[in-house]
């Protein structure tokens, strides 16, 4: 029988099936190396049991799909001590550990009442005070709040004050000075309320009264004092007048007896004869503050001022003459009467001396017994004019005030009456915490106040004049006005808070910052809050990109901001500092933790 040759091409697909082949017929030796290809092996055909117990793939690269190997597929103990494991950047985060360390540091700092708590490789500053920050290097960090242990980047409240004399001011930024060229003319000073203010404090000292002839016992009355807080609006203008001291009569120079004081606000006048040298001193002018402009002629007798425009008044002291005692002191709700009854708060005249003004009427003018007219009664913002009886010279005139004191008159027996003091005022409906203090004899009210300006509101005595001829006459002390307040926070300010330097044990290459921050406005991280770190004492800083890691506890206002910086590019150093730059939106910084490695 002939032997036919069987060639591969003679075998068609599916001609040989598995069933016709006996076990062991197709052995590995009967297949060439590439006879079976992977494409000819169906999925799941080769299972784990078909593989040898030991499979050496050390020379192969095995690529597994993502998540194909889970923790459950690994043994409980995985020994990688002899292996190098490389993980992608960001695959493992230590935020929680750093945050927990920072929180622990803060809690320990609070428990131990520590401001700066030193860790092995870091510090925690819980802001019990400012000792952990460098005040010289920081800028605009006046927002530190000691009561709440935090920094806030808004403009710190700033106190202000504006002082007024008769022609000068202390705060050109808020004020304009008045003028006082002559009696019956001049302009008022002004004060403009700074932005954000709703209340200002007002203090007014009235002027002292002048004195008369060379008698050591004669003295003009001291001016009064008033204070109070006025409700205002930002940009509002208040108007200020400062009383001028009463003029004392020019000694031994009767030709000058027609001079009058330049007391804006209706300071008392005097009017004496021309026969005798012994003439009375003029009353002191009132110091006052108005919510509306007022013209000088409105202070004259017959003038009119709307009472609600008046806020506070420091009354002026009455003038004195010859040996009739003292000029009445100004101030109080009623000024003092002049003369031997000086010190009595009464509107009635005391013989030939004038009474003091009160809240409703001026002091009554003095009257000479037996002859001559009465001196002028005081009125709304002017003191009464002195007068003479028979052929004698006049007494002292009344001091100005809310209502001025009455003038004095010289009697036929030679006694020259003194003027009464003007009253103060603080009854405006927008004034709170108002109070007044009257003078005592020649001493002015309010001289014990820490805000008192020396050389103001006291009456002039003959002892002051030394009883020497003085053709120009002497003048008692002027009044004074002070306006003060606190400029509230004026919005957000650009603030930089820089820590003191902390020494690391080695030269660090990386550093991490944790900031406990609370929103007031809505800041943008790394724009409104920028954190940076230095290892060379602050000469160079590297920014750390901050991320919001959530609230400190629950939904409290304080949140944890974390950031890390590579500082190996900075000059080598071990003097660590952190810096926070705050801008645009107001935030509160409750604490900072800095660590390094």
As residue ranges, the low-confidence spans are: 109-114, 251-279, 466-472
Mean pLDDT: 77
Give the helix level as a range of percent.
under 10%
Total beta strands: 24
Distance from N terminus to C terminus (CA atoms, Å) equals 92 Å
Roughly how many Å is the radius of gyration? 47 Å
Element-level helix/strand string: HEEEEEEEEEEEEEEHEEEEEEEEEE
Whole-number total of structural domains:
2
Strand content: 15-25%
Number of helices: 2
Shape: rod-shaped
For the sheet with most strands, the description reads: 7 strands, antiparallel
Structural class determined from secondary elements: mainly beta
Topology (elements, then pairings):
Elements: H1 95-111, E1 116-119, E2 122-125, E3 151-152, E4 158-164, E5 175-176, E6 189-192, E7 199-205, E8 225-231, E9 237-241, E10 287-290, E11 310-314, E12 387-388, E13 409-410, E14 431-437, H2 462-465, E15 480-487, E16 495-498, E17 502-503, E18 510-519, E19 529-534, E20 542-544, E21 547-551, E22 558-566, E23 575-582, E24 587-596
Parallel strand pairs: 12-13
Antiparallel strand pairs: 1-2, 2-24, 3-24, 4-15, 5-6, 6-9, 7-8, 7-15, 8-14, 9-10, 10-11, 16-23, 17-23, 18-22, 18-24, 19-20, 19-23, 21-22
